[in-house]
Amino acid sequence: MKTYNVAAIPGDGIGSEVVDAGVEVLKALAKRDGAFTFHFDHFDWGGEYYKRHGRMMPENGRDLIRNHDAILFGSAGHPEIPDHITLWGLRLAICQPFDQYANVRPTRILPGITSPLRAVKDKELDWVIVRENSEGEYAGVGGRVHQGSPLEAATDVAMFTRAGVERIMRFAFGLARSRPRKLLTVVTKSNAQRHAMVMWDEIAAEVAREFSDVTWDKMLVDAMTMRMVMRPQSLDTIVATNLHADVLSDLAAALAGSLGIAPTANLNPERKFPSMFEPIHGSAFDITGKGIANPVGTFWSAVMMLEHLGENAAAQRLMKAIERVTANPELHTPDLGGSANTRKVTDAVVSAIQAENA
Ligand code: NAD
Ligand code: K
Ligand code: MN
After folding, report:
1. How far apart, in whole angstroms, are the C-alpha atoms of residue 282 and residue 298?
2. Boundaries of each Isopropylmalate dehydrogenase-like domain copy (predicted)?
3. What does the alpha-carbon distance between residue 351 and residue 324 come to, in Å, rounded to a whole number?
């Protein structure tokens, strides 16, 4: 029997609540399938670890997870520690060295979920946002001088490389090609950012020639927010920079009903390093410890993990189980306007997995 070794890194806040739920569901799925099992290694890295050790993960942390088949992540973010320390010390400290440059964020309106867009029908909002996940605005290049003096200055340089842009474009065009509508929207801000964003547009046009069956267009990011709200059905696959896609995907998640549902995969497409799967939301301090976090974003991320591992039948079974549960308003958590809790939703998904014809 095949065993998948998965590193579980819950992080902080609701991270542990949703990752625990995700582990439980994946175990139930493996049991139901019978052809594979999971071995989970749990790592207590994050803000509490930082308070004890002065760093978010051990110095050899990456070596401890380098050979796992996948990583299931919760959230980096602690109320007592500045966000840039938790983010760079954990999530980016894994994503960037493991070259997880393609961040894939599907968005659709699941059965039973209501979009805040009154006019949109369920099938009309079905997007995948591809976020460049290794450079751009989050390259970590910059500096701060004369701190505290009137001369103080600070920069965060958005750094784009031809190789980095080419590979994310190729990935996005390839993904667009694999979807029924074969549509790609390339997002930039090439009117104002006249160097890197112009290169981004040029490379898009070059790569497009390799994908003549994909229909593509370009949007400025500000106009894109409007199009997502006004004409959601006109979009399918979307590719954008690290920062732009970060912002657009929270909007996308909200338009599809809740941030609590949205999943993401941080992929190293070449499979030299493990890929990492996580809900797109953060630590949600406002609901931490209340047991009401929506675990669906983590479950859907687990579906993406199963697809990445090649367990497509199990992935489909889990997605069906999720949809069966979202279809029932009694199983909605408060972010969806319901009164169910994490426990109840997790139990319902496990039951749906166990159900004979699920
Ligand atoms: P957030 O995603 O934690 O929360 C935003 C809002 O959405 C909150 O009202 C929260 O209650 C709600 N929400 C989020 N997930 C939910 C869920 N599963 N169920 C129900 N409601 C949910 O964003 P924030 O408040 O901006 O950030 C809080 C912390 O998380 C910060 O430290 C931030 O840096 C960190 N963060 C980490 C990641 C990551 O690790 N990938 C992503 C985003 C934010
Ligand atoms: K997260
Ligand atoms: Mn984000």
Report:
1. 11
2. 5-349
3. 10
Please tell me the predicted confidence (pLDDT) of residue 119.
85
Q: What is the pLDDT of residues 226-245, one digit of tens each?
A: 999 999 999 999 999 999 99
293 lines ligand 1 (CB under 6 A): yes
Considering only CA atoms, which of 226, 208, 213 is closest in space to residue 181?
213
CA distance 283 to 17: 10
- pLDDT score recorded for residue 315: 97
Interface TM-score (ipTM) > 0.90: yes
User: pLDDT for 57-113, tens place per residue?
Assistant: 999 999 999 999 999 999 999 999 999 999 999 999 999 999 999 999 999 999 999
Q: Which residues pair with 106 in a beta bridge?
A: 128
CA of 281 to the centre of ligand 3 (A): 7
Closest protein CA for atom 38 of ligand 1: 282
Question: Where does the pLDDT of residue 217 fall: very low under 50, low under 70, confident under 90, or very high at 90 and above?
Answer: very high
Q: Which domains does the chain have, with CATH numbers?
A: 1-100+261-357 (3.40.718.10), 114-255 (3.40.718.10)
Instruction: Judge if the beta carbon of residue 75 lies within 6 A of ligand 1.
Output: yes
Whether the CB-CB separation of 43 and 319 falls below 8 Å is answered with no
Instruction: Tell me the two tokens of residue 180.
Output: 């029924």
Q: Is the pTM of this model over 0.90?
A: yes
- Confirm or reject: Cβ of 297 under 6 Å from ligand 1: yes
Cα–Cα dist 159/165, whole Å: 10
Choice from 14, 18, 83, 259 to test ligand 1 binding pocket (greatest atom count within 8 A of CB): 259
